[in-house]
Amino acid sequence: METVLGIRGPTFVMLAADTTQARSIVVMKQDENKIHKISNNAMIATVGDSGDAVQFTEFISKNIALYKMRNGYDLSPKCIAHFTRKNLADYLRSNTPYQVNMLVAGYDPKESLPELHYVDYLANAKSVKYGGQGYGAMFCASVFDRYHHDKITQAEAYEVLKKCVAEIHKRLIINLPNFNVAVVDDQGVHNLEPISGKL
């Protein structure tokens, strides 16, 4: 019942995630942050089983911090996506698989390139220009396809995400009123104005 969306521009990646925490027919809270900063230049948006999403995200985040402490530098976003996919694949073949879908976003300062990776609970991973996870993402593919272009600016990307959220509010029966938005670029990770249901 959750939704995360991502869009990659020439110098940035922007993520949006709903803030609803629900189980079955019960909404438990409306201020859950599903976008997590995992390094100075990377973030991850996770959806899925609530316990698995929190635990797996913290596991990845702490291991990336440990890598930086041991080696003195951050992993690149591409390496973070591969590390995440490998761990999901290992747990998939164990008795305790994680039911987590995610978007891994980052900016590689060495290559001066933004990265957006789609990773699902079956450990499929793909570098994408835009994408989403969850029920709401099904209504956004056509919006992304129509409005995304290679030279998209941050302001334009934010407007595309607003169009996606408006489509979700219009067509999805599940109530997802608010979306947090964060962007990563050469200045690091920072939050933008949330997108509210009152569009």
TrEMBL record:
Task: Identify the PANTHER family for this entry.
Answer: METALLOPROTEASE TLDD, PROTEASOME SUBUNIT BETA TYPE-1
Which keywords belong to this entry?
Answer: Cytoplasm, Nucleus, Proteasome
The organism is Glossina brevipalpis
State the Gene Ontology BP annotations: proteasomal protein catabolic process
This protein's GO cellular component annotations are:
cytoplasm; nucleus; proteasome core complex
Q: Which domain of life is it from?
A: Eukaryota
Assembly, in brief, is:
Component of the proteasome complex. The 26S proteasome consists of a 20S proteasome core and two 19S regulatory subunits. The 20S proteasome core is composed of 28 subunits that are arranged in four stacked rings, resulting in a barrel-shaped structure. The two end rings are each formed by seven alpha subunits, and the two central rings are each formed by seven beta subunits. The catalytic chamber with the active sites is on the inside of the barrel.
Name under which the protein is recorded: Proteasome subunit beta
Gene3D superfamilies in the cross-refs: Glutamine Phosphoribosylpyrophosphate, subunit 1, domain 1
